[in-house]
Amino acid sequence: MNYFSLKELFPKEIYNKFSEEELSKKLDPNLISTLNDIKYFFNAIIIINTWSFSQSLINKYGLYNERGYRDQSSLTGAKRSPHKEGKAADFDIWEGSKRLDPSFVRETIVKNLSVFKNIKGIELNTEWIHIDLRDRSNNGKVCLFNASGSILKWV
Ligand SMILES: [Zn+2]
Question: Which residues have a Cβ under 8 Å from the Cβ of 141 and sit 6 or more positions away?
Answer without folding.
Answer: 154, 155
